[in-house]
């Protein structure tokens, strides 16, 4: 098979993003009561382009409701071992980008932790399908470019609702785009195939895990502002987690009015 050029590869990945909802980067859902409280941020959310953002949000929501959510609900009925395998594989494939951000954040302990997990799970864990690292006492943490920029002291900036990539501050929006472009494992046909599987599987797995959260938020009077505020809370706490440099993620601080790792 003829190898794709890099521009062709980017074009193909852009098409694949049509399967990604605005909630792809979110984290594990919290309970119904804490979610409502977490939506009340304790600092101003700067959203000067709110009318435009709401228009993009309506498009993103339509994509989510008609394309991704039905698939995610069906996915929840698959056997647990299958769902866990998808989750493990997608998580493991993302570890090289976590490793890069650990280094950029000046966190040698976290970078060693990430590298160890990736090596063990990719080999002993059958390309990451089995999480061998957790039982060995090597817990997983996450890191992305938006968090790295925050650790560097770059400010939030205004809220931006990106088509298909969702809501967030402008700092995180740049991080999302950069995360899409960076390919630490190279650009071979095998890596492209594994990357496609990881993107699609990870997106569906993440969306399925978020169903309780979004079902709760959609019952609130203003879904847009509720989701925007939850994301703002979670991302603020996520940056603080990066600054602390802990190798073990903390508890779901959203339940106490703070946030976790969106």
From TrEMBL:
GO terms for biological process: intermembrane phospholipid transfer. Residues 242-262 are annotated as: Disordered. Keywords: Lipoprotein, Signal. InterPro entries: MlaA. The keyword Electron transport does not apply. GO terms for cellular component: membrane. Coiled coil: none annotated. Belongs to the MlaA family. This is VacJ family lipoprotein. The lineage of its organism: Bacteria, Pseudomonadati, Pseudomonadota, Gammaproteobacteria, Pseudomonadales.
């Amino acid at each position: 098979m003829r190898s794709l050029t890099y521009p062709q590869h980017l074009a193909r990945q852009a098409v694949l993003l049509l399967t990604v909802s605005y909630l792809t980067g979110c984290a594990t859902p919290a309970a119904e009561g804490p979610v409502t409280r977490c939506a009340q941020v304790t600092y101003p959310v700067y959203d000067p382009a709110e009318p435009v953002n709401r228009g993009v949000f309506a498009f993103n929501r339509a994509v989510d409701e008609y394309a991704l959510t039905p698939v995610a609900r069906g996915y929840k009925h698959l056997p647990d071992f299958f769902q866990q395998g998808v989750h493990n594989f997608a998580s493991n494939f993302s570890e090289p980008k976590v490793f890069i951000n650990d280094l950029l954040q000046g966190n040698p302990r976290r970078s060693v932790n990430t590298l160890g997990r990736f090596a063990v799970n990719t080999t002993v864990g059958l390309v990451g399908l089995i999480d061998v690292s957790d039982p060995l006492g090597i817990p997983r943490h996450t890191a992305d470019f938006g968090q790295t920029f925050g650790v560097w002291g770059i400010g939030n900036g205004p809220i931006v609702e990106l088509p298909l990539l969702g809501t967030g501050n402008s700092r995180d929006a740049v991080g999302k785009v950069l995360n899409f472009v960076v390919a630490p494992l190279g650009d071979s046909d095998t890596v492209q195939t594994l990357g496609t599987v990881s993107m699609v599987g990870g997106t569906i797995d993440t969306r399925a895990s978020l169903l309780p959260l979004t079902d709760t938020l959609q019952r609130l009077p203003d879904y847009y502002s509720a989701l925007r505020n939850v994301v703002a809370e979670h991302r603020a706490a996520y940056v603080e987690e990066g600054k602390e440099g802990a190798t073990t993620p903390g508890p779901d601080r959203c339940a106490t009015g703070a946030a976790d790792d969106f």
